[in-house]
Amino acid sequence: MIHHIEIYVSSLQKSIEFWSWFLEDLGYNVYQEWEKGQSWKLENTYIVFVQTEERFLDIPYHRCRVGLNHLAFHASSHEHVDELTRRLKNKGIKILYNNQHPYAGGKDHYAVYFEDPDRIKVELVAP
Predict the structure, then answer these.
(1) Helix axes 78-90, 12-25, angle to 10 degrees
(2) Residue 65 contacts by C-beta under 8 Å, 6 or more apart in sequence?
(3) Could you give the CA distance from residue 95 to residue 115 in angstroms, rounded to a whole number?
(4) In this structure, are residues 104 and 111 in contact, taking their beta carbons and an 8 Å threshold?
(5) Where does residue 89 rank: exposed (0-12), middle (13-18), buried (19+ CB within 10 A)?
(6) Coil, strand, or helix at residue 26?
(7) What b-and-e string marks burial along 16-32, b requiring 16 or more CB atoms within 10 Å of the CB?
(8) 101 and 112 in contact (C-beta within 8 Å)?
(9) Each residue of 38-68: pLDDT tens digit?
(10) 3-class DSSP state for residue 60?
(11) What value does the mean pLDDT take over residues 6-32?
(12) How many whole angstroms separate alpha carbon 113 and alpha carbon 96?
């Protein structure tokens, strides 16, 4: 089991606005808050978002470079994926692979894919 994941972001405020409703919908609760970061926790695992220092913002994140490609989360059901997809669209968040949604991961993989403000790909997959 993963203990925690820490992600440096270009705008902590934008990341908090983006991630808070999504993580809270999945059952995460705010765990830690400080000037340069915030985390959410579910059971024994937590996710941390930290403001990147200005001097390191010159090269933006890209998931095809070495490093993190995406984060995948469990949905409770197909209906949960559908509801989150509606909420994402209502918030103006682009659905990735929309022409293959919700089976972009294959015929037995029911999921929605989207990006956070730094273009980190996020996946919500149903059992």
Answers:
(1) 150
(2) none
(3) 8
(4) yes
(5) middle
(6) coil
(7) bebbeebbebeebeeee
(8) yes
(9) 999 999 999 999 999 999 999 999 999 989 9
(10) coil
(11) 98
(12) 5
